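Shift notes (night). Ran NAD-dependent epimerase/dehydratase while the centrifuge was going.
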Amino acid sequence: MKILVTGAAGFIGFSFSENILKNTEIQIIGIDNLNPYYDVKLKEKRLDILKGFKNFKFFDEDIINYEELDEIFNLEKPDLIVHLAAQAGVRYSLENPHVYEYSNNLGTLNIFELAKKYGIKRVIFASSSSVYGGNEKTPFLESDNVDKPVSLYAATKKYNELIAHVYNHLYGIEMIGLRFFTVYGEFGRPDMAYWKFTKNILEEKPIDVYNYGKMKRDFTYISDIVEGIKSAVFLSKKIDYEIFNLGGDNPIELEYMISLIEKETGKKAIKNYLPVQEGDVLITMADLTKSKENLKYYPNICIEEGIKRFVKWYIQNRY
Ligand SMILES: NC(=O)c1ccc[n+]([C@@H]2O[C@H](COP(=O)([O-])OP(=O)(O)OC[C@H]3O[C@@H](n4cnc5c(N)ncnc54)[C@H](O)[C@@H]3O)[C@@H](O)[C@H]2O)c1
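Came back to this:
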């Protein structure tokens, strides 16, 4: 079996690929454009690890380039796609709207078109909890109305879900969309709050705490997300089009997360309290009934353990 992973040098793409390469004989074909949204050295470091496996092959390519992607598909003939490449980040989409249009919308369209052209049976793609927008009803259910996104990033993820439905309806490609909820952990993303907080607390610099620390997030540890993606990959029953929440099953306040980082670093945070930022939502909380039933997805790393592992990794690798 050959799996094509887009965004393979990214946080989740790397973590998923490494797990598959370590534990199976499956071949991974990675694609990533190594864009400089955050420290490219971190992406290169992840890639170096993946390149240590004989079953890994990498293409430095932008998914907006249809012709070049076509050549890769023609050469590699993958059996299944895990599509994770995207311009991530809610706040960045306020200032850089066009890159979201290119990478998330056009890029995804290209991947789905090539899945059609090369007769690929199943595509698993990354959606996001941000599609729930200002949903005030918690927990968030996959069947909730998600027609009112509050950021361009969220709107592109909703668009991905919509066109996935079209490609299933018209061409019968099995489409599985995974709505990830605030993923964190080793080899994570430097643009995310848990990383910035850890860095600044260790360096005794102030941290910006939005919504006065009252924001609640359903933080999900990376190994749980990897298990969720693997379940979608190996699911034996036939799927048409399905969306699944992958959350941590326990939303916590930002303030609590900061206290855990303080405990693990042994340092006190210097907090700069700020109002809520535009485009941000106040709470995310996944209903996992559907994922538990269909994907046997049971997240098992609690925030206390996850932050402990992350801070340990950060101190050893980045500090
Ligand atoms: N991390 C989270 O909390 C989270 C939450 C919800 C959804 N997601 C989604 O999960 C997926 C993976 O996220 P991540 O946290 O690993 O982010 P990431 O930024 O670490 O990984 C994405 C990778 O895609 C690559 N990429 C971006 N645009 C590209 C393009 N046009 N062509 C080729 N490669 C491109 C980037 O270089 C990067 O390595 C994304 O689709 C993201 O929107 C992530």
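Residues 2-187+219-250+285-299 form a domain with the Rossmann fold fold (CATH 3.40.50.720). The first helix runs from residue 11 to 23.
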